[in-house]
Design goal:
By secondary structure, this protein is mainly β. It has one domain. It is built from no helices and seven strands. It has strands at 8-14, 33-39, 54-58, 68-76, 80-81, 91-92, 98-101. It has a three-stranded antiparallel β-sheet, with no helix packed on it. A two-stranded antiparallel sheet has the order 1-2.
């Protein structure tokens, strides 16, 4: 008899990436964590993920896939992305991708881990 795959898992999100929405204390205490319950989606798609959702995923910048990032979905595949900066060209989010952002606008980009 096969056991069913879990529908959710717990995740301890550290840092201030989603402050002030989550981990409010992380703005003043870098060691603060927020406990999240994460719904596991085997094959994410525009039918199962929506703009505004908070998602956890393996960092594309970490070759070992050990670093989990937590971000908010800002746009889904097919969305046109336009910058406020005139030198930036508009582009469309490619199929199978989403554009995610941190809630904390003051956060610096993460270091690349190889």
């Amino acid at each position: 008899m096969h056991s069913a795959a879990p529908a959710a898992t717990g995740l301890a999100a550290d840092g201030s990436v989603l402050s002030p929405t989550f981990a409010r204390l992380a703005c003043s205490d870098k060691g603060a964590t927020e406990k999240l319950v994460v719904r596991l989606i085997p094959r994410p798609s525009p039918r199962t993920v929506s703009v505004g959702d908070v998602v956890a995923f393996n960092s594309p910048m970490d070759a070992s896939k050990a670093h989990v990032m937590v971000r908010r979905v800002a746009a889904l595949e097919g969305s046109e992305m336009v910058s406020d900066e005139p030198e930036d060209e508009a582009f469309v989010v490619p199929p199978g991708h989403a554009w995610v952002l941190a809630d904390n606008a003051e956060l610096a980009p993460p270091d690349v881990v190889s």
